[in-house]
Amino acid sequence: MSVPVALAQDLATRPELTTDVLVVFGVVAVALALFVTERLPIDVTAILLIVILVVLEPWTGVDPETGISGFANEATITVLAMLILSGGISRTGLVQELGRRMAAFAGDSLRRQLFATVAATAPVSGFLNNTPVVALLVPVVTDVANRGNTSPSKLLIPLSYASQIGGMLTLIGTSTNILASDISARLGSEYPELHRFSMFEFTRLGIVVTLVGSLYLIFVGHYLLPERVPPRADYLEEYDVGDYIADVAVVPGSPLVGETVGEATDRFGPEVDVVQVVRDADRSVAPRRSTHLAEGDVLVVRTNRDAIATLEDAEGVELVGRSDSTATLSPDGESGIVTELVVALDSQLIGERLEPESFREEFGAAVLGLRRHGALVGDRIVGRRLDVGDTLLIQASPDMLDRLSRRDGVIVAREPPRSEYRADKAPVAVAIMIGVVAIAALEIYPILITALAGVVAMVVTDVLDANELYDAVEWDIIFLLAGVIPLGVALEQSGAAALLAFAIVEVAEVLPTIAVLWLFYMLTALLTNVISNNASVVLLIPVAAAAAAGVGANPFAFVLAVTFAASTAFLGPIGYQTNLFVYGPGGYRFSDYARIGAPLQLLLSVVTVLGIALFWGV
């Protein structure tokens, strides 16, 4: 008989604190430290966990085959397939079109704008992975705010939170649900009440949670959010660009005449970046290194205060503009558009040092400013390592902005003027998704098989090109799943989960069962806000199931509480990836998330726990 079942039968028997348990607790501590501090990228941390668990096999019980089992796990492959399906939908422009139509009636009414944002986000997030949904809607919602003379700060956190609560409508709404379903099925041999979730297993509770959360966001939440970014904000003013921009003219006889932009940059030094070349009435935005200079050209450069002073003495150029130099940037014209670019989860920019010249060559855009964790990085931006959620102020031509909006790894915080999507494929993509959901819901085939079949159908019908399959996958999520799944196995096999469950039962034995259920919800929600949602599920579902058995409660109710709590990270920007996407464009501070999120977290904790008790019993 397994340790958790023994715990359920005899509360007086404490599971032993063995060397195996201590070692596994040590691995968990290392994992938590790495997740919280982000000293390593999340996918590297996941691989390291696999290595540690296998090296410590005598104590963890994780052999090489078990260590890599996460890569072949049903949950991992299903999430991978669902990400590709979501990518196919995004290529059709369907989500953006839905957002535009919902926003068309919003006008300048904040409440109607919030309704449009929530109504366009939550239902869609029940069937598409919410990460790409938010990435697609950030520019749509930002434009809604600008057109309605509303601060984007009032709409962007609600966008992220609506996607999270909407993800609880179906099994495929989030990767967390799919992983929780797999863990529940694995524990079914020990707890008869546990099983793999069906497609609409918890939809009735998800509808209640979504309605309550949506009403809060529409009627209450906006009062708690400050206007960090003014309505129709001037990006150049918000980023204090005028302090770091200068105009220099190429004077007659200058050694720069006939040279290239790259050679001029080498002369000026690494702190000076040429963002425009103005020649007569023509303006070259984010010029290539190979662009040749001529006498009379005006170079618009971005640099720091110290380097601007050195330009006054530079050979062959004359400083001709400082106080009003941002006027030459043409913030919203045919030659160039100024907007924000958010570094997404799977971006190639993560960990790279910001080199404006290299960025210009790679992305065809000039870097004008940088915002990190809501704070403006004013002076020196050259050489700073980029991270998820960093927001770059860029200027690019309309054509390049359109290309950037369709590029993986970055999120353009406004809609490009000439977006190109495969709109003619939208009906096909929707039909494929309906087929995937229907076949899985009818249990004709498992969701794994139907999702993979949907991927093939997307390619065969040209909704996706074959080479776009890999770009649609957020590989850090896949590696995270593969890394934490064997950690969950180690927790169960070593007895660590049983020991934790016993300790919780011992502390909470004077409380009613529903109070213990609420405590598990809150523990999961708090943990999710400092580590990933998937890691929270892996760590706490075995403990919750064992604790439920220990107090004679329904293990399935406890598993659901953990699952719902893990998908609602409302206290900060770190716990959920969609929160990071809106950090920069909303100009938020860390505390803004808790300001609106803490009451929502408490409200949904009560609604979810009472709903579980009503629908499934405790």
TrEMBL record:
What Gene Ontology cellular component terms go with this record? plasma membrane
Q: State where the protein is found.
A: Membrane
Please give the biological process terms from Gene Ontology that the record holds. Answer: potassium ion transport
Q: Which InterPro entries did the record assign?
A: Cit_transptr-like_dom, DASS-Related_Transporters, RCK_C, RCK_C_sf
Give the source species. Answer: Haloterrigena turkmenica (strain ATCC 51198 / DSM 5511 / JCM 9101 / NCIMB 13204 / VKM B-1734 / 4k)
Transmembrane portions of the chain: 20-37, 44-62, 74-94, 114-138, 205-225, 428-460, 472-491, 498-520, 526-549, 556-576, 596-616
Classification via Pfam families = CitMHS, TrkA_C
Signal sequence interval, chain numbering:
none
Which protein are we looking at?
A: Citrate transporter
Domain (RCK C-terminal) ranges: 233-317, 324-410
Provide a Gene Ontology MF annotation, just one.
monoatomic cation transmembrane transporter activity
